[in-house]
Amino acid sequence: MYYFASLIHEAVRLRQKGMPVSGVASAVGLLYEDPRTGDQIQQALQDPFFPLTLYAKHHLGACERGETGVARAGQDLALLSRMFLRVRRDIDRYFENREITCVDLNGDATQAVNTGDWCSLCGVCCQLSGTIPDPPETVRYPGYWYTYIAGDGPLVQRFCPFLFELPLQGLFFCAVHHVKPLTCLAYGKENCEENHPGMANR
Question: Are residues 109 and 75 in the same domain?
Fold first, then answer.
């Protein structure tokens, strides 16, 4: 296993146990030639809501293709980190996180979350390449959100960039739950049971 991949797997393991990842995050950041990129990655990896498990699931497999694959996985992590930090900042800047999220993004990853009676917060329905960026009628997203939601951002999208993680609970949540696109809002229990049998709460 390549050193980069081993560090990511270690970070996933530590996060799932609620242990500090600062040392591993620093080691990953130092692998990047550009210090600013390394700092962004270090900051993202230490954020309790960064979807590291999904990154490992969907992007780390590139490392099996040798050095070019490792380079691609590293580039993907840099892009995802930048996207995550930008979204995280602008949720507060434009909306106030308590108004649009189902989780207090200023809190920690141990908090309880409830987005409805049937949703199990597995995140499977949000692991897609993009969707229609149609906000609720009274909502206007920052311009680049439309690109991210549609899957037209700089990253080859394997999951929605607004899908954040609660690693201790093994759960995933929509960071813009209360202002999510109408297409997402229309996705209900019946859709979940049809497309992902057994994943919804009974």
Answer: no
CA distance 44 to 105: 13
Q: How many domains does the chain have?
A: 2
Residue 128 lies in a domain: yes
pTM for the structure as a whole: 0.93
d(CA 123, CA 41): 23
Tell how far CA 121 is from the center of its chain. 13
Q: Which residues contact 67 (CB under 8 A, 6 or more apart)?
A: none
| 155 located within any domain | yes
145, 77: one domain? no
Q: Report the candidate in 5, 15, 172, 22 with the shortest Cα–Cα distance to residue 76.
A: 5
Q: Mind listing the pLDDT tens digit for each residue in 50-108? A: 999 999 999 998 787 888 899 999 999 999 999 999 999 999 999 987 778 888 898 88
Query: Minimal CA–CA distance to 87: which of 12, 15, 22, 164?
Result: 164
In a domain, 201, yes or no: no
By residue range, what is the domain housing residue 113?
103-195
Type of residue found at 185: L
**Quick check: is 200 in a domain?**
no
For residue 173, what are the β-bridge partners? 164
Q: In sequence order, what E strands does 48-170 have?
A: 163-166
Q: How many CB atoms lie within 10 A of CB 157?
A: 21
